Structure formats: structure tokens, C-alpha cells
């Protein structure tokens, strides 16, 4: 894929399960996302919409993304557009761009692992980022209350909770795996 520069406002830090450790996290992945904050949610920007306010670089980037999506997906592409896939089950648009903290925890794994994503700190650490987003391999809970965030992370990472859910874990070739629902 050719490299297309995009407007800075579409550069986000995205956290996946690979960056989350108990009580801490690695730096986020730097990603282009066609989203804009709108109140307490994000709004997906399509190629045509990007042209109206003059986001021409994003529009060029989205044109290339649509082309690749069409080539890869073929007939399946007609069932779901790249924009629908990107926001599948509103996993992206439902996130609150204004939240000070995101309690993030793994959707599956042998052990429950949770951390706090302090959005202000993450944005301060990398001035290139316009926002912090949680990827589909994590569940999250948005809050502005630091004490609430720390309490939830302490409970989610506790050995007692881990022991309590072990009997409910599905067993596979590699042992128990946690499958959780969001908070």
C-alpha cells in the first residue's frame, strides 16, 4: 500500500491485548482512524464526508483503503463495508473521547489482566496522538473517577477473583481460557 500522509486529527493511539499487562501497559499502537469526537462518542468519517470539510489527505487514504477492502473481500464486501466493519457492533463509536480513564481488560486469556489507561498521560507522552481508543481484543469501562478506576483494576487483577472464575473457564488444549463480558 502506498504511504499517504493524513491530517493529524486522525492519528490515534490504539490499545490491544498485546499492550495490556496487570496494572500497567505498553505504549499504544499509532493508527489512522477515520473518526472524529462528537460529544461523548466518536463519529465515523466516510470518504465523501472527508472531502466536505477539506480533509483531502484522509479522503485519499480512505479511497485506497476502500480499494484494498474491495479487492480482499470481493463479494463479501457487498455485505459489509469497511466502515461497518471498522465500527462493528459500535465497538469504536461507543467509546467516550472525553473519558479521563479507561479501565481495560482482556476479552479472553488464561488469567484476567486489567490496567488503567490514563488518556491524559498517554496523550502527553505522544503529542502526535489525537485520542486514545481501545481495540476489539479488550473490554473497557470509561470513567472520570480515578478512585473508581483503581478500585476496578485492583479487583479485576486480584487472585481471589481469578480463583473464583477458574471453574467457569472453558478448557482447551492449553488449559483454561477466560471468556468475559464487558462491565
User: How large, in whole angstroms, is the Cα Rg?
Assistant: 18 Å
Number of domains: 1
Poorly predicted segments:
none
Class from helix and strand fractions: alpha+beta
| Tally of separate helices | 6
Largest sheet: 3 strands, mixed
User: What shape does the CA trace take?
Assistant: globular
Helical fraction equals 25-40%
The percentage of residues in β strands lies in: 25-35%
- Average the pLDDT over all residues and give the rounded result: 90
Number of strands: 13
The N- and C-terminal alpha carbons lie at a distance of 38 Å
Element-by-element helix/strand order: EEEEEEHHHEEEHEEHHEE
Tell me the strand order in the biggest sheet. 4-1-10
Describe the 3D structure.
The chain is α+β, with helices and mostly antiparallel strands and 183 residues long. The chain has one domain (8-179). Helix content is 29%, strand content 28%. It has 6 helices and 13 strands. A 3-stranded mixed sheet has the order 4-1-10. It has a 3-stranded antiparallel sheet with strand order 9-7-11. It has a 3-stranded antiparallel sheet with strand order 8-13-12, with no helix packed on it. β2 (20-21) and β3 (24-25) form a beta hairpin.
Amino acid at each position: 500500500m502506498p504511504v499517504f500522509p493524513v491530517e493529524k486529527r486522525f492519528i490515534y493511539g490504539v490499545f490491544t491485548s498485546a499492550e495490556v499487562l496487570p496494572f500497567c501497559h505498553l505504549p499504544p499502537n499509532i493508527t489512522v482512524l477515520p473518526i472524529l469526537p462528537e460529544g461523548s462518542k466518536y463519529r465515523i468519517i466516510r470518504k465523501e464526508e472527508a472531502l466536505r470539510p477539506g480533509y483531502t489527505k484522509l479522503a485519499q487514504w480512505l479511497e485506497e483503503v476502500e480499494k484494498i477492502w474491495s479487492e480482499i473481500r470481493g463479494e463479501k464486501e457487498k455485505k459489509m463495508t469497511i466502515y461497518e466493519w471498522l465500527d462493528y457492533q459500535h465497538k469504536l463509536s461507543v467509546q467516550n473521547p472525553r473519558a479521563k480513564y479507561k479501565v481495560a481488560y482482556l476479552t479472553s486469556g488464561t488469567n484476567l489482566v486489567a490496567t488503567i489507561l490514563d488518556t491524559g498521560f498517554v496523550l502527553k507522552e505522544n503529542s502526535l496522538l489525537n485520542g486514545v481508543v481501545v481495540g476489539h481484543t479488550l473490554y473497557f469501562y470509561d470513567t472520570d473517577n480515578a478512585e473508581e478506576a483503581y478500585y476496578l483494576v485492583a479487583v479485576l487483577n486480584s487472585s481471589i477473583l481469578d480463583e473464583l472464575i477458574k471453574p467457569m473457564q472453558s478448557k482447551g488444549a492449553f488449559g483454561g481460557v477466560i471468556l468475559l463480558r464487558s462491565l
